[in-house]
Amino acid sequence: MSPTEKEIINNTRDYVKRSLLNAEAGHDWFHIERVYKNSLLIASIEPCNLFVVSLAALLHDIADSKFHKGDETVGPKIANEFLTTQQVDSETLNQVVKIIENISFKGGHTVKKHHSIELDIVQDADRLDAMGAIGISRAFHYGGYKNRLLYDPAIKPNVSMSKEQYKKSTTPTINHFYEKLLLLKGLMNTETGKKLATKRHDFMLDFLNQFFAEWSGEV
């Protein structure tokens, strides 16, 4: 007997949690859990296939290319293989894999090769987790993980990087705000995502104002 959708979601949750047990903190199980919750929140307002959204949110970072020598095929392949073991129907499986293939920011210049409300929802949820207090925390954690500078006034942000330039960038963490984080508000897909992004965007602006004031020695 085939598992129910609820059982598949529970099995997927357990599988991802095990798989990301020792992952970098910005891309670990807790990141997945937050994106999953954000996805469900947006999906409660935006009409969609909730089963597809749930599976895609849980599996979207099962093998982030940053930790696999830039190979963007690993994540979709692992997701495909796992969902096949769960006897997920081919249409659902294909939709989930397409979402994983198209969700990443990659400099903000990549043209989507797949379009669906489910992709829009999961992508918005993932982008929300790169904003606000959590986004700031993740940015500096990853910068420390890669031994990057906090800030260097001589190194200016590059907001027009190609996909390959973005993937290879080693600029200071503060630059990342201008090269990605502050761009996300304008890249949200759904009306719900846009509303949720506003407060997190404003929080990041307040943080940067405080950061530069302290950097400059202002009272």
From TrEMBL:
<dbReference type="InterPro" id="IPR003607">
    <property type="entry name" value="HD/PDEase_dom"/>
</dbReference>
<feature type="domain" description="HD/PDEase">
    <location>
        <begin position="24"/>
        <end position="140"/>
    </location>
</feature>
<protein>
    <submittedName>
        <fullName>Phosphohydrolase</fullName>
    </submittedName>
</protein>
<dbReference type="InterPro" id="IPR006674">
    <property type="entry name" value="HD_domain"/>
</dbReference>
<dbReference type="Pfam" id="PF01966">
    <property type="entry name" value="HD"/>
</dbReference>
